[in-house]
């Protein structure tokens, strides 16, 4: 057993850092053109849906601040017979039309009748079709990329299609995803609640810097928790695909393998979150949701980032698993030494 421990120590590789994981994932993508084609073809339904989803999502993001301001203006008008604008209460008659800054405060020109139906449609798309299509794309990407990594060779496009579709694996992975969907939805609802209340506090008490600091701290903490848990949740999907462990069992294994690697998982997810923001924010400012080719470019970039993310999650899982196995062998050797010395 001691010789086995020495052999493990000799063969032990350095722990992969975030940049190492990203570099290895990029290498898999660049060296395997067939894999890119396979990922693109199997993601086509997802890409078409993402175009509609992103258009609707960006429109909701733009409309939400206006809706909140609209509600606050109406509330102040009914409560005080006027509303606060730059710390001055302006009185209005009951039948008077409110006209202020044409960009934000012209209530009569702003129509919100489509906001709620669009929001309901967006939530339904996220929970049902988008979730299922993202899961299928992720499972196929993880499986084929793991084959490419383990075999260290090329697979033909035909082999990828023939060997990747496994009904039992898809079913088990879907069960795991339902656990994750419920937990991630809870975090997203908490984030939406925090953002809404932060915005209302800012609109009401914007002159006080303490409220801005509290809101920023709350959102930052919530984001860090979400990203750290995202690494665990994504690893559980990889575990379902590669090891056939599903549901709560996959989550338990993922928590075990993630112990001691929380920061690494957090930073890895932070990279992809930052890339998503960098691609989405310019698109919102340029008004890509209004039409044109901008939204197609954004979705295409999202496809590349999403593929890279799942390949990186597969590599991250493999590295965490390898470290745990090495640690177990070394611990077993140490226990054996203690028993021998005790006897």
Automatic annotation (TrEMBL):
Ranges annotated as spanning the membrane: 35-57, 123-144, 174-193, 200-219, 231-253, 265-289, 295-317
Keywords, comma-separated and alphabetical: Membrane, Transmembrane, Transmembrane helix
Keyword Transmembrane in record: yes
Superkingdom field: Eukaryota
Listed name of the protein: Uncharacterized protein LOC107481813
């Amino acid at each position: 057993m001691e010789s086995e421990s020495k052999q493990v120590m000799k063969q032990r590789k350095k722990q992969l850092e975030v940049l190492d994981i990203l570099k290895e994932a990029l290498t898999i993508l660049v060296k395997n053109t067939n894999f890119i084609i396979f990922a693109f073809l199997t993601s086509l339904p997802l890409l078409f849906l993402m175009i509609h989803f992103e258009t609707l999502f960006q429109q909701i993001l733009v409309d939400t601040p206006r809706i909140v301001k609209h509600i606050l203006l109406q509330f102040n008008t009914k409560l005080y017979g006027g509303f606060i604008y730059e710390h001055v209460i302006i009185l209005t008659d009951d039948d008077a039309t409110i006209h202020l800054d044409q960009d934000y405060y012209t209530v009569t020109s702003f129509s919100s009748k489509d906001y709620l139906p669009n929001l309901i449609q967006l939530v339904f798309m996220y929970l049902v079709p988008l979730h299922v299509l993202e899961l299928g794309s992720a499972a196929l990407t993880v499986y084929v990329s793991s084959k490419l990594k383990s075999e260290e060779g090329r697979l033909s496009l035909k082999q990828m299609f023939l060997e990747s579709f496994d009904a039992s694996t898809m079913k088990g992975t879907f069960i795991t995803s339902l656990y994750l969907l419920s937990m991630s939805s809870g975090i997203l609802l908490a984030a939406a609640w925090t953002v809404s209340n932060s915005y209302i506090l800012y609109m009401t008490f914007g002159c006080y810097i303490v409220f801005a600091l509290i809101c920023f701290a709350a959102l930052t903490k919530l984001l860090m928790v979400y990203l750290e848990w995202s690494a665990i949740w994504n690893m559980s999907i990889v575990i379902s695909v590669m090891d056939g462990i599903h549901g709560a069992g996959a989550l338990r294994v993922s928590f075990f393998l993630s112990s001691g690697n929380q920061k690494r998982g957090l930073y890895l997810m932070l990279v992809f979150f930052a890339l998503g923001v960098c691609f989405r924010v310019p698109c919102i400012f340029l008004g890509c949701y209004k039409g044109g080719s901008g939204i197609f470019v954004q979705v295409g970039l999202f496809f590349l980032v999403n593929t890279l993310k799942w390949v990186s999650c597969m590599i991250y899982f493999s590295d965490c698993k390898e470290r745990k196995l090495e640690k177990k062998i070394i611990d077993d050797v140490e226990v054996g030494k203690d028993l021998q010395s005790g006897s």
